[in-house]
Amino acid sequence: xxxLYDRHRAVLPDWLALYYEDPLEITHGEGRxxxxxxxxxxxDFFGGILTTMTAHALPEVTKAVSEQAARIIHSSTLYLNRxxxxxAERIAQLSGIPDARVFFxxxxxxxxxxALLLATTYRRSNTVLAMRNSYHGRSFSAIGxxxxxxxxxxxxxxxxxxxxxxxxxTRGPFAHLTDDEFVAACVEDLKDxxxxxxxxxxxxxxxxxGVGGFTSPPDGLYAAFRDVLKDxxxxxxxxxxxxxxxxxxxxxxxWQAHGRSGPPDIVTFAKGIGNGMSIGGVVARAExxxxxxxxxxxxxxxxxxxxxxxxxxxxxxxxxxxxxxARRVGGLLIERxxxxxxxxxxxxxxxxxGLMIGVELVRPGTDxxxxxxxxxxxxxxxxxxxxxGKGGGHDTSALRIAPPLSLTVAEAEExxxxxxxxxxxxx
Length: 427
Known about the structure:
The chain is 38% helix and 16% strand. By secondary structure, it is an alpha/beta fold. Helix 11 (322-341) runs parallel beside helix 13 (409-426). The longest helix is centred in the last third of the chain and has 20 residues, at 322-341. The protein starts with a helix and ends with a helix.
């Protein structure tokens, strides 16, 4: 393993982060488990950063990919593509957006980049509203709207970005308020902000902030924002790269917790739909999607093999009600983790919904982030046979727990026990 690590460091960028003091090579997986190069098995509670959504080596996806590869793998968007049309039809119907059009990309970063292009072109404005503590990808424009310093290597941007309160419920100037007061204060802040700037193109927001540590506002905040945005003609972009496809359990899309004032104008997606294959995309009303006045294609977006995987994965997800499983098993997992956290002064909060759970860590007796504890828990969990993630934003550190949506009750109990031991060991 040291040889592979040395080779990695010799040819790949220094800023390409790796987990663990002794980095892990994953060689294969099945169900909710993966194996490393030493043959050790781990319960996977991070799924390749929320990407292995249904299961490792899901037979339906493996079969679809194999059969499609035997026919044709790729032809580009210059030719009619039956799997792409079929998956677009399914996603358009599921999106909740009227007269929807779908454009496929290869990643969530590219999806958000496309959404920004559409919104700024449609609105003739390069001003964008984004949420503090947000993350939207690693391209030049996506970095320009990312409100998380740890993932923003440049202040240069083609966009003017203004950051809005509300993505983090339990920190910041409004944390002491009730939910209703919190929403009202954030709305007043948004109204005040709009009085100080040229008309923005759009607000882009993750219903639950992923990299930021699985933080979220009270349900209904973005619906209240939507009412204000509509008055100004400003578009709402819901970044569903991590929250889409039923992961939150309560809803198929994260925006539906804020759906009182209607669906977003644009939805971006990626990660879980491909179950590990590179699929991203944008859903938007036809008038917005069709606003570009120059030719465009996607060489690899919507290629046949990824579309076949996406169709098989989506069919499996819906037919087996994995959204319902995420709600039931995720609720159990949150309960178990909250019971453990109650006796640990280093755990500030267990939050989330469905199988998207964050555990925020602090130095005991303070409200200060404890990134060293997060790293220690990550290592201890691995030693116990569990893989999890980590994240956080300004002065926060959090563990990120997001298993495949087919997680069983027994696996949830096993993972909670391992994580409990890891948390106690790091306390």
